[in-house]
Design goal:
Order of helices and strands: HHEHEHEHHHHHHEEH
Number of strands: 5
Structural class: alpha/beta
Bound molecules: cobalt (II) ion
Radius of gyration: 20 Å
Strand content: 5-15%
Strand order of the largest sheet: 2-1-3-4-5
Helix content: 40-55%
Shape: globular
Distance between the termini: 53 Å
Length: about 230
């Protein structure tokens, strides 16, 4: 039998627990009812679909407290129509929590996007990134027109966000919500790891008819003005 070291014996792990106690204490000092209220219900207005990258923590970068953002993160912020995990999160957010906004947030310099442009053999990750790889081919002309590698990766990061917004709009979950007259908007944002700033890719859609034309117009020229 393997005996794992207890958390208390590991300074890094025990540090996480002391950080946690200090954090909970600080919140309670500022707002004594905070956890009691939160335990009774969550009413986030936002579903965040972002990259797993440790440098892009959803709540922190938009200044939201626990209870304010429903979060789904995976490598390169993918919304695949066969991914039960992502779809279950989307369904719960839209149908049960009735969020007003679904934000797909990518980030510049995304490692997943970078990897999709190279012919690495990464195993399962190749399957996961295949959609971005195909996007890279589809938009090859736009991408290769950019002068340097970093710019090309960033253009694909933007294209990827916009295509994932399209996928959110294609789900029966969002289509049915719109048909019912439920107000839910889908947005595409991108985050700069180099300066901590978010940018709106201006592809917000809140009905099925506008979705395709808005997204196609945005894809006619990914903006790189933010770099
Ligand atoms: Co990433």
């Amino acid at each position: 039998m393997v005996v794992m070291a207890d958390t208390v014996d590991d300074p890094f792990l025990s540090g996480l627990f002391s950080n946690n106690r200090a954090w909970a204490e600080k919140i309670k000092q500022e707002n004594p009812d905070f956890f009691d209220k939160l335990a009774k219900q969550q009413a986030p207005k936002v579903l965040w679909i972002g990259c797993s990258d440790s440098r892009v923590p959803a709540n922190e970068i938009i200044g939201m407290m626990p209870g304010e953002v429903f979060v789904h993160r995976n490598v390169a912020n993918q919304v695949m129509l066969v991914d039960f995990n992502c779809l279950a999160v989307l369904q719960f957010a839209v149908e049960v929590l009735r969020v007003s906004h679904v934000i797909v947030c990518g980030h510049y310099g995304c490692g997943g996007v970078k990897a999709s442009l190279k012919n690495y053999e990464l195993g399962l990750l190749d399957n996961w990134l295949y959609g971005i790889n195909m996007m890279g081919r589809r938009y090859e002309e736009v991408i290769t027109a950019l002068p340097n590698k970093a710019g090309q990766v960033d253009a694909l990061c933007e294209i990827n966000v916009i295509e994932q917004v399209r996928n959110v709009c294609k789900t029966s979950i969002v289509r049915q919500a719109w048909r019912r007259g439920q107000e839910v908007s889908i947005h595409g944002w991108i985050y700069g790891i180099h300066d901590g700033l978010l940018h709106d890719l201006e592809v917000s859609v809140n009905d099925a008819t506008a979705a395709e034309s808005t997204l196609d117009a945005a894809l006619a020229g990914p903006r790189l003005a933010h770099r």
